[in-house]
Amino acid sequence: MPALDFSAIFTEHYRWLLITGLAMTLLLFVLCWVGAMAVGILLTIVRMVPFRPLELLVWAYVEYQRNVPLLVHLFVWYFGIPQLLPYSANDFINSHNSELIFAVIAIALYQAAYISEDLRSGIRTLPKVQFEAARAMGFTFLGSLRWIILPQAMRNSLPPLVNQTLLLFKATSLAAVIGVAELTYQARLIENETYRIFESFSVITVAYLAGTMPLIWLGSRLSRNNASRTR
Amino acid sequence: MWQVFSENWEFFLLGTYPRGPIGGLAMTLIIAVVSLAITFPFAIGVALLRGSKSVWVRRACEAYTTLIRGCPLLMLLLWIYFFLPQLLGFPLSPFTTLVIAIVFFQTAYLSEVIRGGIEALHKGQTEAALALGLKRWMIIWKIILPQALYNVIPGILNQFTSVIKETSLAYVIALGEVTYSASQVNGILMTRPMEVYMVLAALYFVLCFSLTQIAGLLDRRIARNRSAVR
After folding, report:
1. Interchain pair B191, A83: CB under 8 A
2. What's the CA gap between A120 and B151, in Å, rounded?
3. What is the CATH number of domain A12-224?
4. The complex's ipTM?
């Protein structure tokens, strides 16, 4: 094993690679989080509509997302979907960082299924009269969701949502497999060029832990608080 | 989609060239079973040590689980794939690499599941056993673990589906399980990626969905048994 030498991977070139990698990971994370949250909330609302086929559809979607590995979702989107798209669409996507676009779609849709499940269990802990009272007060269906149900459900499911955020942050590393130039990808690139395995992986390990540790701390704090409040 | 599967089912299920004799879905299952079998005793150990008398042992175990929770599995896999051989001085096969990574990763998660089972047990169990004069290891071995493990069977099954999903990372280190086989099929057919990867997704779905359904069934049955006892 060669002696440790961190300066070898902090030359200007490699430093730039790491910085762009970090920026890409953060960009992926933010886009996926917003997408997953939006789709997750949408799924939860659709599931509450008392219409059986719609419910079944959402159920099937959630089960499909949860029982297939994320890597396979990424492959379906990145390799499979372009086969179905017309030429012009592929042209457009390919000239706009297709890896990033498909990675965001795949990860967001995957995590959305988990988020919708967490929100649903948050809603299920609310007494049904909350909804009925809201309707009786003259709120519309969507209005009662927006003003009465969702705010309470969100608070109930805050600890699991923080946990999903943590999982999502870790999941962004898989985008490296289809070639998104984020942290993991850049670390492999640097390792490949310099043979500095320990150094390059240490840097990204520290970066990932810096992102995940606060989330873990927040998650355990929130679940402790919630537990004491309901008692 | 069906055509792709019926013409290449050997590849998907058994996988041959170039890393025979076994690959494909069979390899996925082998990796998953082997990893879980090795994980199991470690996870029990960590779960028990979380309840140790020594603060330092408890803290060390907690630090380990927290650290693992904070690391992406892909990164762990790359550490083991590239760095561990350098540290050990001899190469590791992709199979060993993946199994080590999953064991390292899943021990943290499975130990949490088992710990949940242990903590859910009534305190009177331990106290009664102590009153009967049983030794500490006897209490753990004969009283606590059998009940705790029985109660978390569904949790363990769910963890098994997670392991199956995690084996897809074998693709990254070119180990010929089903995701890798599918990408080989894709390479041969060239023009039909959507069908190939939908077949792959369907295979995982059938496997994992049936496992989670069984887990749900067992969960309900165990909950019923428990409420019947009370």
Report:
1. yes
2. 25
3. 1.10.3720.10
4. 0.91
